[in-house]
Amino acid sequence: MLFAGVAAPPAEPGKRAPYASAAINEAGWKKFDRTKAAGLVGMALERSQRGPAYEIADVDDDDLIDGQTALAGIVALRKMKQTGQPFFLAVGFNKPHLPFVAPRKYWDLYDRATLEVARNTTPPERAPLAMDEGVEFYTYTDVPATRPVPDEYARIARHGYYACVSYMDAQVGRVLDDLERLGLSDSTIVVFWGDHGFKLGEHGGWGKLTNFELDARVPLIVRAPGFKQNVRLRGLVELVDLYPTLAELAGLPLSAHLEGTSFVPLLRDAGRQWKKAVFTQCPREGWMGYSMRTDRYRITRWTKAGETDIIELYDHQSDPAEDKNLAGLPALATVQQELLAQL
User: Fold this and answer.
1) CB within 8 A of 50, min separation 6: which ones?
2) Sign of torsion, CA 223 227 233 239?
3) What is the pLDDT of residue 10?
4) Which CATH fold would you assign to the domain 276-343?
5) Helix (H, G, I), strand (E, B) or coil at 56
6) Cα–Cα distance for residue pair 107/201, rounded to 1 Å
7) Whether the Cβ atoms of residue 170 and residue 61 lie closer than 8 Å to each other
8) Are 29 and 14 within 8 A, CB to CB?
9) Parallel, antiparallel, or unpaired: how do β-strands 3-4 and 54-57 relate?
10) CA distance 125 to 312
């Protein structure tokens, strides 16, 4: 376990301060200076300063960046309240991104011994391009090189992820509490969303950058004045739908070039028919993987100039974890053909 008792000083330009511990950050900066002097640039230079993948920090919420972000959001809300004018405020939290650093009290919310680890730790058969290499996770200094990661460390990492989610959740709550105190809740549209999902050992991966459901699916919560609350919508939506949705809710005109579709009608009627499919794509070693998710299936087509396509097909009705690639099975030949045509 890693512990921190002293908040880290601000980082110098080009250097990150991802840990609460000044000692861990300073060790990373020394590595950064050495590798920069050796000629490293870009992502290689960025990765050179990494330390452990997690830290149990003996600090207050506001000693870490997401606590400071929550404070900045609250200050901005109060200024906007004073203007009496319509406003748009984006508050972006870093966690639960790596490294898994959170104040101790959020780690204490979980009993590590009871946490389950992934059991589907190998990629599906006949899916050679499905997985990324998990490069980011394995560049942290304490992560075992063994793949899959041993259960003991996988449980630590999962614990850290959960702690970071709870820490971030508390910061969101602080901003929303202040929105309520300012009397703005009944006139403000609030959207909570993430930009990608995350694997915690599933299929042997840690992180994002695949077309699997765990990477492509994100949290999305919308609260808008005049709409029913606490309703779970089953309709398929995409992140490109957010802008037109917000524009319509705010009574703003929509540009003709938008690819997204406002899902305001779905907010009004949760049971109505909506999109038949949603899409993601992800590159891999010169290939591009185009993935489509319907209400039942996910199909991914990997294509590369001059190469035969590689297909993945998963049935979420029988295999929600996407462990069995059904592409090429005679029994699903018609389904596969129809889905490929739709894609």
Assistant:
1) 28, 99, 139, 140, 141
2) negative
3) 54
4) Arylsulfatase, C-terminal domain (3.30.1120)
5) strand
6) 19
7) yes
8) no
9) parallel
10) 10
Closest CA to 123 of 283, 278, 279, 321: 321
CA–CA gap between residue 318 and residue 87 (Å, rounded): 46
Tokens of 43: 């992502």
Q: How far apart are the C-alpha atoms of 238 and 71, rounded to whole Å?
A: 30
Please state, as a whole number, how many other Cβ atoms lie within 10 Å of the Cβ of residue 327: 21
Using a 10 angstrom Cβ sphere, with 0-12 exposed, 13-18 middle and 19 or more buried, the burial of residue 252 is exposed
Could you tell me the end-to-end alpha-carbon distance of the chain, in angstroms, rounded to an integer? 47
Q: Can you tell me the distance from the alpha carbon of 145 to that of 148, in angstroms, rounded to the nearest whole number?
A: 9
Where in the chain are all domains bearing CATH 3.30.1120? 276-343
Cβ partners under 8 Å of residue 217, min gap 6: 197
For residue 249, what pLDDT is reported? 96
Alpha-carbon distance of 50 to 209, in angstroms, equals 20
If one counts every other C-beta atom within 10 angstroms of the C-beta of residue 213, the result is 18
State how far the Cα of 24 lies from the Cα of 195, in Å rounded to an integer. 28
The alpha helices in 294-343, defined as continuous H runs, are 333-342
Residue owning tokens 């590590």: 112
Q: Which residues of the chain have pLDDT under 70?
A: 1-14
In sequence order, what are the beta bridge partners of 128?
none
pLDDT digits (tens, 9 = 90+) for 69-79: 999 999 999 99
Q: Is 239 helix (H, G, I), strand (E, B) or coil?
A: helix
**How many C-beta atoms lie closer than 10 Å to residue 29's C-beta?**
17
Cα–Cα nearest to 130, from 333, 283, 343: 283
The predicted structure's pLDDT at residue 1? 34
Give the model confidence (pLDDT) of 119-162 as tens digits.
999 999 999 999 987 778 999 999 998 889 999 999 999 999 99
pTM more than 0.90: yes
pLDDT of residue 7: 45
